[in-house]
Amino acid sequence: MTNTMTMSRLTLVISTLLLFFSVTLSANEANTTNALKLGSYQNIVEQQAGHPLVVVFWSITCASCLKEMATIKEIHQEQPNLPIVMISIDDISEAPLVLATLKDKGLSDLESWVFAESNTQRLRYEIDSTWYGEIPRLYFLDADHNRRGISGKISKADWLELLAG
User: Fold this and answer.
1) pLDDT tens column, 34-44
2) Closest CA relative to residue 107, chosen from 158, 151, 70
3) Which of 15, 79, 92, 158 could bridge 154 with an S-S bond, Cβ 3.0-4.6 Å?
4) Mean pLDDT, to the nearest integer, of 46-71?
């Protein structure tokens, strides 16, 4: 009788743990970040073919980037169908802090990437040969994917003007 009770308890404990881990994994899948490697940026742009797109390069250590996130949140709330992709230039090892920052700023539902190349200069060059790493760096792509790059924090009015035309 004791063996049967012990097995039942063990089965219950294992079932409970499996349920806990499956729920935890499902919750974490919704808030993940991707590893940006050579070729990733082109894939991001190609996935939005025929649609406007905004790509934001930022860092967890950039005060202007963190301030810009308030404007990004407003734009995202007003235009939820506008794809905005957040790309952190921090090292992939900082991904948990990147995700925590996006969550804190109310942007965890946006597509998120983190640099994952050891040669970040080569990665930046592939993205834009005229970009030297200054952040925040925003790219506004229209439906034909004509691209306009802007460095530095910009106002909401500037965002709306760039999105309009």
Assistant:
1) 999 999 999 99
2) 70
3) 158
4) 96
Q: How many residues does the chain have?
A: 165
Cα 165 to Cα 159: distance, rounded to the nearest angstrom: 10
Kind of pairing between the strands at 53-58 and 84-91:
parallel
Distance CA 101, CA 82 (A): 21
Q: Which of 136, 68, 132, 141 is nearest to 106 (CA)?
A: 68
6-17 residue pLDDT tens = 555 555 445 444
In angstroms and rounded to an integer, the radius of gyration of the C-alpha atoms of the chain is 20
State yes or no: pLDDT of 55 exceeds 70.
yes
The two structure tokens encoding residue 52 = 């406007």
In angstroms, the CA 63 to CA 68 distance is 9
Spatial strand order in the sheet of 84-91: 34-36, 111-115, 84-91, 53-58, 137-141, 147-151
> Please, what's the b/e burial string for 96-123 (b: 16 or more CB within 10 A of its CB; e: otherwise)?
eebbebbeebebbebbbbbbbbeeeeeb
What is the pLDDT, as a whole number, of residue 17? 40
User: Rounded to 5 degrees, what are φ and ψ at 50?
Assistant: 85, 0
